[in-house]
Amino acid sequence: MRSLSPNQRGIACMVGAMALYVLNDALVKPTTRQFGPGQILAVRGFFATMMVAGIAHGAGQLRNWRLLRQPMVGARSGLEVTTAASSVAALALAPLATVTAIMMVAPLLIVMSAVLMGWEQARAHRIAPVLLGFVGVLLVIKPTASLGDFNWGLGFALA
């Protein structure tokens, strides 16, 4: 069997990560009926921390623990906690398929952010698929003009 190129390995890792992401959401959704978001986040955070600590230890990176005191690490951690809390709240309040579709917009936002920050050039072959993806998300969530129909789960998913 021939070895995979770096791009092929990256693609395989991304497909695997997205499969685990969807599996996580599929398991969290029924759990929200019995447990609160705080409990779910605590258990998920504990196991994620143990996994990351094990990987960091195996890679010999725990000796650089002082780097964790940098302000950007704290900001990133705060954003991760906010994202996790929003996703659990979204899964508790909205249909799984809709939440998943909305949350999959993140790569599109990253591309648009990179273009807006000048890290990538604004070219039609980048912008057109991103805009098409945004249209697809709008079709999934079926926005209405009535605020009375607003679903907080969709708002948390967008957050």
Would you give an account of this structure?
The radius of gyration is 19 Å and the shape is globular. 72% of the residues lie in helices and 0% in strands. The longest helix is centred in the first third of the chain and has 26 residues, at 6-31. It is mostly helical and 159 residues long. The chain has helices at 6-31, 37-58, 71-93, 96-103, 106-116, 124-141, 152-158.
Question: What does this entry show, briefly?
Answer:
72% of the residues lie in helices and 0% in strands.
Structural class: mainly alpha
Task: Output the radius of gyration.
Answer: 19 Å
Portion of residues in beta strands equals: under 5%
Distance from first to last alpha carbon: 43 Å
**Low-confidence segments, ≥5 residues, pLDDT <50?**
none
Overall mean pLDDT stands at: 84
Task: List its traits.
single chain, 159 residues, mainly alpha
